[in-house]
Design brief:
The chain is α+β, with helices and mostly antiparallel strands. The protein has a single domain, classed as 3-Layer(aba) Sandwich (Chemotaxis protein chec), CATH 3.40.1550.20. It has helices at about 20-25, 50-60, 65-80, 95-100, 120-135, 135-145, and strands at about 5-10, 15, 35-40, 45, 80-85, 90, 105-110, 115-120. Strands 1-7-8-4-3-5 form a 6-stranded antiparallel β-sheet. It has a two-stranded antiparallel sheet with strand order 2-6. The protein is globular. The mean pLDDT is about 95.
Length: about 150
């Protein structure tokens, strides 16, 4: 699974280096393709194929007769791109995804268990500091009944 926070740069061709630790997690599975889609916040979700299938199954299990599942499916699927990882460990992100996340050059890649996320560095730092400042991490964990003893 994916854990940690890594700072990288997007090159002029829109390529991003996948952190070596993340590539190491996947090397036994011979993964060279990632599914990249718009995130819930101003970021990109990146899934290896097996985790994309789990995520996609969750989406497909929702009723198509309700507006929220239709809206979420439409936005996520329309923003999804299959990105091939080259021999240098890079994926090429389409301009539309870079624009969605407000990514120009400096990025932070964070591990989020079964997926990882790509954020504009300033956006991520602001998001994280906002939660810390409002003591929001503890409040949110409490709402989720997550206890650290």
């Amino acid at each position: 699974m994916f854990y940690g926070e890594y700072e990288h740069i997007v090159d002029k061709k829109g390529r991003v280096i996948i952190p070596a630790r993340f590539r190491d997690v996947l090397k036994d599975k011979f993964v060279d393709t990632f599914m990249v889609t718009t995130g819930y916040e101003k970021c990109l979700f990146v899934f290896p194929p097996d985790q994309w299938q789990v995520f996609e199954q969750t989406l497909r299990s929702q009723s198509p007769h309700q507006a929220d599942p239709r809206a979420v499916s439409r936005v996520l699927y329309s923003g999804t791109n299959q990105c091939l990882c080259d021999k240098q460990g890079r994926i090429n992100l389409p301009q539309s995804l870079l624009d969605y996340a407000g990514i120009k050059k400096e990025i932070t890649i964070i591990g989020v268990s079964s997926r990882f996320e790509i954020w504009d560095r300033a956006e991520w730092n602001g998001y994280k500091q906002g939660i810390i400042k409002e003591n929001g991490l503890e409040k949110r964990a409490e709402k989720m009944d997550v206890k650290i003893e």
